[in-house]
Amino acid sequence: MSSDSLKLAGVGAVACVACCAGPLLGLLAAVGIATVLGYVLFGLVAIAVGTALVALVLRTRAKRRVSLDASPVQIIDRPPR
User: Fold this and answer.
1) What is the mean pLDDT of residues 20-46?
2) pLDDT per residue as tens digits for the range 51-79
3) How far apart are CA 43 and CA 49, in angstroms?
4) How far is CA 33 from the centre of its chain?
5) Torsion sign, CA atoms 24, 30, 36, 38
6) Which terminal residue of the chain, N or C, has fewer Cβ atoms less than 10 Å from its own Cβ?
């Protein structure tokens, strides 16, 4: 290859880098932003599911509580006739 064709190839490579650098950096930034948004969304969903499960467990436990009645209890020593 001649020196002129190498210079032309170098100029073409520089032009390609100059032209495509912005969109490529934009793509990388979008991927990074999407990763952060996915991370945050996953965290928020986990908090919502955890809150719902805690509420469900507490409500279930509240239903199971036995209230002691203060009424007197009759004790029978022998079976009735």
Assistant:
1) 90
2) 999 999 999 888 877 666 677 777 777 77
3) 10
4) 15
5) negative
6) C
